[in-house]
Amino acid sequence: MSTDDVLRRSVTVRLAPDDAFRLFTAGLAEWWPLDTHSVGRVDALDVVLEPGIGGRLVETLADGSAAVWGVVTQWDAPRRVAFTWHPGTPETEGTLVEVTFRAAGDGTEVELAHSGWARRADGERARGSYGSGWELVLGRFAATAG
Amino acid sequence: MATYHDVLDALGDPTRRAVVERLAAGPASVAEVAAALPVSRPAVSQHLKVLHAAGLVAFEPAGTRHLYRLEATGFEALRGWLDGYWSGVLGAFAAHADRTVRSMDENKADS
């Protein structure tokens, strides 16, 4: 499962890396598809990515409650931001999302990598056993974020 | 044909996740799964039935019992769903970035 350990997606935008990074982080609420990609769905009001290591990625719901999706683990503006990813689940079951910004032509390539099965306590054991590690973590993630 | 909805539903239950955890260690019979969990054999059978319907578990006869093991189909459905999830996020980002660029271009043209 070596190539399946990390799920990668990328997109190129016409913004400079500085602007792309700022839009992705400080401007998160402007573009994140909250109605489909949140804990509260239609009851989700807002989402904020607090800047800097230790900052939270947190959703505010219509009833005033908050749902923490993850915590920033890397903050290297305007090149990279990484955060744990555990919407609706305990942090110990979190996976990791890394977003990298690279200058490409007159724009920026934004690559998102979702990984983290190896961070589990049994990661070493999971590595050699199909279905026990990454796939199961994905299951936990999807079961709550879906 | 299992869909990610089946998979999400199947893995939404903590006991079923525990069953998957047990099978991740290797194929097992209903009795062996039940021995590893605080759940009765009939309950384990029921959970295995749901996991099988979701494409997460397969079984084969071994003497007088069935041996259950993890099956890739359901996990692949889930993987496909996650691909779509992040594509949706990045697609929304790119669409917004496009709008931002266009409005900057228009502002430039106006000034």
From TrEMBL, chain A:
Residues 17-145 form the Activator of Hsp90 ATPase homologue 1/2-like C-terminal domain. It comes from the Bacteria. It holds the Pfam family AHSA1. This is Uncharacterized conserved protein YndB, AHSA1/START domain. SUPFAM superfamilies: Bet v1-like. InterPro entries: ASHA1/2-like_C, START-like_dom_sf. Belongs to the AHA1 family.
From TrEMBL, chain B:
The keyword DNA-binding applies. InterPro entries: ArsR-like_HTH (IPR011991), HTH_ArsR_DNA-bd_dom (IPR001845), HTH_MetalResp_TranReg (IPR051081), WH-like_DNA-bd_sf (IPR036388), WH_DNA-bd_sf (IPR036390). It holds the Pfam family HTH_20. The keyword Protease does not apply. Residues 1-101 form the HTH arsR-type domain. One of its GO terms (molecular function) is DNA binding. Keywords: DNA-binding, Transcription, Transcription regulation. This is DNA-binding transcriptional regulator, ArsR family. It comes from Krasilnikoviella flava.
